[in-house]
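Contributing new complexes? Match this layout with S-adenosylmethionine.
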Amino acid sequence: MPLAINQLHRGDCLKLLAQLPDGGIHLAFADPPFNIGYEYDTYDDRRSASDYLEWSKRWMAEVVRVLRPDGSFWLAIGDEYAAELKVIATRELGLTCRSWVVWYYTFGVNCKQKFSRSHAHIFHFVLHPEKFTFNTEAIRVPSARELVYGDKRANPAGRLPDDTWILRPQDLPEGFSEGEDTWYFPRVCGTFKERSGWHGCQMPEQLLGRIIRSSSHRDDVVLDPFGGSGTTLAVAKKLGRSFVGIELSAEYAAKIDERLAEIQVGDPLSGAPEPLKSVSTTKDGRRLVRRQSKRTPPVRKPAAALRK
Ligand SMILES: C[S@@+](CC[C@H](N)C(=O)[O-])C[C@H]1O[C@@H](n2cnc3c(N)ncnc32)[C@H](O)[C@@H]1O
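Output block (do not edit by hand):
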């Protein structure tokens, strides 16, 4: 029986994706386990590299099968497997890579003997190299001409974001130059009102907002095979998209259902819509102070890296 839409389905995505028909999904977003020893409640994030890559190829092939001919697939992944998964997606599964976005986040784990990791990779793949949805008007951001130079000639409609999404502009006084690909969104840290508090890998709603707005239209179907805390599904619902979610853990799945039940179509996304101009609201309503909270949850990092 095909998977019902506008629902979270509990189970293994490989088995459940097989229940989706070919070619019905407009947009898939996947933030799979990175195989770095992260402590999930059910999934074991320590597989051999060959096993992880074989598994990744299998679930990605299912995602490709269920995409519409003009569909898009966004994949979030860490350094360890980014290059290999991109090769699988493009050379073996036939996808075209439109952007290799670097998401630069603050509140990463502080390392003593190496540079602290502060980024993840987000690939934007499309099935057809020319026919795909990309709503440029829905994702414009203020230009440096407007923000930095106060130039009256700045286009009030803004410009398309670079492909590095930055999180903390005060660390980059020169900023990034035009044409670069850094996207600026804070990770959902422990003090943020947005944070659910029960899943350490919760992604910011504004980040998913940019992806869903750019690569789908209202009523399109958005798929997330690795539900986690349910961010993709929550944002899809708020933005009036249909969705199909899958999550292995019974506990996480139940909490996703609770999160979705509290959301109405049209609700605003959590977090600052334009982080260069504003910051996220904390749980008690105050703006953030410039120090890291002890309640900041662990970033997804290999256990070995934390010891260095
Ligand atoms: C990195 S988290 C996703 C976080 C999510 N993007 C968010 O914003 O909350 C990955 C999730 O995939 C789930 N998972 C692992 N293996 C799975 C499988 N075979 N099928 C479905 N879900 C799986 C884990 O339980 C975990 O919750």
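Reviewers usually confirm one structural detail per submission. For this one: The CA atoms of residues 188 and 203 lie 6 Å apart.
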